[in-house]
Amino acid sequence: MRVLLINSNRKVDLLAAPPLGICYVAGAAEAAGHDVKVLDLCFAPGNFGKTIKKAVESFRPQLIGISVRNIDNVNMIHSVCYLPEITRIVHQVRRCADVTLVVGGSGASLMPAQVMRLLSPDYIVVADGEVSFVRLLDALENGRSPQGIPGVGMMVDGRFHLTKPELTDFAAAAPDLGRWIDLKPYQKIGSSYNLQTKRGCRQHCIYCTYNQALEGNKLRLRSPVDVVDEIEEALLKYGPKSFEFVDSVFNDPVDHSVAILEEIIRRPWKAEFTAMGMNPKQLDKQFLGLMWRAGFRAFMITPESASPTMIRNYRKGFSPDDIFSAVEAINRTAFAAWWFFMIGGPGENNRTLQESLDFALKYLQKNGRPVTHVAHFFTGVRVYPGTALWDIAFKEGFVRDDTDASDTLWYLSEDLDLEEAVEQMSAAAATCPEVYLGFDERVLMFSKAAAMVFKLLKLPRPYWRYFRAANSVGLSTGIRFMFRPRDIAGLLKNSLRRQGYAGRLVP
Ligand code: B12
Fold first, then answer.
1. pTM for this prediction
2. What is the pLDDT of residue 270?
């Protein structure tokens, strides 16, 4: 079958994400004997209709698959929803091709029934795509009903029917990104060659979707040699400036990540690495040393809070001591570390917020050290169906039985005085250039220009490490808060009002 796979993610900034998932699926479908092409709309011109039409006319696909990665930008102050643009892409596709349409990807997996209703594809694939999509193609090609294939959803007698996905192993072959998409624009804007060392997450954070709808809670590990072979092959073929591990948590289980780092060190070449989602647990001098020797110069770390109460309430699975020992070890290195704090979960109050801010002020300021930190404070916790937080949000009136899960829904602790919280965060940002607040995300619109300058100056990646320097300049010139909305507490309240909440925060 001729299969065209379309990446609908058009979020272009210095965090631009090459469509790894679709490349995995493309590889699996090709290995099963199909003729496959990938159309990446990420850097396509605004009027993507022509690009789609051209691809359809030249390839004449018999089936089209569209990936839905992001629903929204998970930012309560500066909220952007991507579904309207994805809907336009689907309409455009329908207009120029009368073929079977399949939708997959993390966004589709998070809320399959709602995405089915909104985009009306013929089928939806939930969680891992490689096996389900190939089985779906096989069924369609041979005239069998796809009903009952694990991970495949469809309308049956007017009702949405989904067969539970089976997340048993990680059998996919290395996806070879450069075989399917043009990596150059991603490289240019500062993004990395992304890869996975495992699937599944065994943490139980109350707000998170990784351990269920997306990857399941059973770890499915790739062999360290296979992972490093993939890096070696990509390095030789495409020479990316850096690689990014996109596992939910790179250093869990720690033995597996140690084996990968040691395997990288054993190889004769040098490459640069970063990872999102480092767990503070076991992030000690020895592990950081291994990371450095392997070529890591930066990583993201996601404690979400430095308050003992909130670490417990979020069920983060590590202790406050783990964060303190991690930061002390990191502060003796020259890494760039981007810390994420999620303000407003169950039990958050202005005192617990101050504990996280104090952590940033005390431990994450440069103070002449070679280490560079960014301390990113988000306000509001995104609520997804199926999480423990959904149940809490339901009890407290943030979501209801008739709430549409495809809306951008939030939880905010009723113990938080929002005006005071905004004051507290602004005060920290006014003295500490490391502190980066939700509204600062707006500066990402300058990513293209900034990336050109960084490239010209041959500055090391990832480019987010310069957030601190930019904030320092902003503070000394008085333009630091130029992009700050006037009434942040009001924006937060409006967002809650929109989702139908009427309680202590919105009287
Ligand atoms: C790593 C990661 C990042 C990294 C990406 C680094 C990089 N270079 O790629 C960083 C930190 C930069 C990042 C940023 C963002 N991220 Co992010 N990120 C992830 C994470 C943890 C893994 C994504 C990944 O690469 N997975 C590996 C691939 C192989 O899996 P996959 O894409 O899901 O593909 C599989 C299936 O979905 C399916 N499939 C995929 N496409 C298709 C298509 C078809 C046709 C079929 C049949 C199947 C199929 O098959 C694939 C293989 O099995 C996910 C959570 C998670 N655990 O999935 C969040 C996640 C995708 N991110 C999310 C978000 C919101 C964002 C940001 C918008 C946040 C922000 N405000 O900046 C940005 C957007 C960046 C961008 N340009 O798109 C959300 C999206 C949900 C939502 N609410 O919209 C997620 C799900 C996390 C969450 N909150 O639950 N992210």
1. 0.97
2. 97
CA 107 – CA 44 distance, rounded (Å)? 21
Average pLDDT across the chain, whole number: 95
Q: How far is the CA of 202 from the centre of ligand 1 (A)?
A: 18
Strand, helix or coil for residue 300: strand
67 lines ligand 1 (CB under 6 A): yes
In a domain, 361, yes or no: yes
- What is the reported pLDDT for 472? 95
CATH code of the domain in which 12 resides: 3.40.50.280
Question: Would you say residue 211 has pLDDT above 80?
Answer: yes
Calculate how far, in angstroms, residue 354's C-alpha sits from the geometric centre of ligand 1.
Answer: 31
Domain boundary residue among 162, 180, 211?
Answer: 162
Helices (H), 37-111: 48-59, 83-96, 106-110
Integer CA distances (angstroms), 359 to 153, 252, 418, in order? 45, 24, 20
Residue 272 lies in a domain: no
21 lines ligand 1 (CB under 6 A): yes
pLDDT of residue 455: 87
Q: Do 158 and 302 have their domain in common?
A: no
Closest atom, ligand 1, to C-alpha of 193: 8
Q: What is the residue range of 132's domain?
A: 2-162
CATH number at residue 507: 3.30.750.200
Number of domains comprising the chain: 2
The pairing of beta strand 298-304 with beta strand 220-221: unpaired
Does residue 342 have its Cβ closer than 6 Å to ligand 1?
A: no
Cα 248 to middle of ligand 1, angstroms: 10
pLDDT tens string 91-118: 999 999 999 999 999 999 999 999 999 9
Ligand 1 atom nearest to 107, measured from its CA: 81
